[in-house]
């Protein structure tokens, strides 16, 4: 049986770590194309200037336009070539990070997330959009970033909602990796550069990936609420450090080498509902996780554990929590149909899945979440 595991070459995390960015740039040369939104650059300008001076390197600012589109990637690649940049730095949130991945094409790439809202920083994949912001395609590269450098001081000062959203994304990691392990489904790690399906044989996840995904869940339960409290106060504590590592590293390695299943597919289906457009990826994935658990008939104890965790950190437990106050039978079916298209990850569940089953799981998860939330509020 062919197995695969993929990871960044280096992962470094700690307070004020951006001051060491020049050290890693220096390992590739003396100049780096900096792909970041101007607001993110402004937030850390003092650190960028200090590390550039200390290590004798230069950052070439790119004026990132905000969308990871084919046109923007081509523009950024031209700047890198004209300025003779020896590496690429993606700094900020998901779109700047994905644009940096597309520009670097798997070579000399440093990722510096300023929020811990998703597990994208460690992966070898990116999402392409049109210049108007509509989904275009997925892109895959021959390897993960060379360095992922995480400054927890910066993340602690970002809005707490980003950290909580990252916990929602991380919450799905164990449940999806468990499902793909049971079904021996192929994982993202087996995809070669620049292709969706590729030419190499598919691979399944490793025991290492499932173990990391399990630890991801355990750390959320242990430190999630404490990390939220620390972020509310803009303070770096050990709990915050643990959850930043959980959201970015454990979830990143767990999803890419452990695989996706029902939760992310249901998230994708939910995106057709206009009300969800104001909610973050991880917030919708958290509800998708509950729906996957209903789909697989998870135990009452496990359902209560996940519901308690979501309520403790402020993650959604019902459709109303992600902007859907009501849903018609027709809308519910459309969501389920989108979640069940042939290329979706829901088919990595360890049993055949139908549109009717997914619609029933979403409706039931919504009902369970509403009732559980109301019961908890009544006992306060």
Automatic annotation (TrEMBL):
Annotated Alcohol dehydrogenase iron-type/glycerol dehydrogenase GldA domain residues: 8-152
Protein name: Glycerol dehydrogenase
Lineage: superkingdom: Bacteria
Pathway(s) of this molecule: Polyol metabolism; glycerol fermentation; glycerone phosphate from glycerol (oxidative route): step 1/2
Annotated keywords: Metal-binding, NAD, Oxidoreductase, Zinc
Cofactor binding mode and count: Binds 1 zinc ion per subunit.
EC class: oxidoreductase
């Amino acid at each position: 049986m062919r197995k695969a595991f993929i990871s960044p070459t280096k992962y470094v995390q700690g307070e004020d770590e951006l001051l060491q960015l020049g050290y890693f740039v220096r390992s590739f040369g003396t100049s780096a194309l900096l792909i970041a939104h101007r607001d993110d650059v402004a937030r850390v300008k003092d650190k960028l200037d200090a590390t550039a001076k200390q290590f004798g390197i230069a950052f070439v600012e790119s004026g990132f336009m905000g969308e990871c589109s084919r046109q923007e990637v081509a523009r950024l690649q031209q700047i890198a070539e004209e300025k003779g940049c020896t590496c690429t730095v993606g700094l900020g949130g998901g779109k700047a990070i994905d644009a940096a991945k597309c520009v670097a094409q798997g070579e000399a790439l440093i990722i510096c997330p300023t929020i811990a809202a998703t597990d994208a920083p460690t992966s070898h994949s990116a999402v392409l959009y049109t210049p108007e912001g509509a989904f275009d395609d997925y892109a895959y590269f021959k390897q993960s970033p060379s360095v992922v450098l995480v400054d927890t001081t910066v993340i602690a000062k970002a809005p707490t909602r980003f950290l909580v959203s990252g916990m929602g994304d991380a919450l799905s990691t164990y449940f999806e990796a468990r499902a793909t392990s049971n079904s021996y489904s192929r994982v993202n790690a087996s995809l070669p550069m620049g292709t969706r399906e590729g030419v190499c044989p598919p691979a399944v996840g490793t025991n290492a990936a499932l173990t990391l995904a399990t630890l991801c869940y355990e750390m959320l339960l242990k430190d999630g609420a404490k990390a939220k409290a620390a972020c509310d106060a803009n303070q770096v504590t050990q709990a915050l450090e643990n959850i930043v590592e959980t959201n970015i590293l454990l979830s990143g390695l767990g999803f890419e080498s452990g695989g996706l299943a029902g939760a992310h597919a249901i998230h994708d289906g939910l995106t057709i509902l206009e009300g969800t457009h104001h909610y973050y990826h991880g917030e919708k994935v958290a509800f998708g996780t509950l729906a996957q658990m209903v789909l697989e008939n998870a135990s009452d104890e496990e359902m209560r554990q996940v519901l308690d965790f979501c309520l403790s950190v402020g993650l959604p437990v019902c459709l109303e929590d992600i902007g859907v106050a009501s849903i018609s039978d027709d809308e519910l079916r459309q969501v389920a149909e989108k979640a069940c298209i042939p290329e979706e990850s829901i088919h990595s569940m360890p049993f055949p899945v139908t549109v009717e089953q997914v619609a029933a799981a979403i409706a039931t998860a919504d009902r369970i979440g509403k009732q559980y939330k109301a019961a908890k509020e009544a006992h306060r």
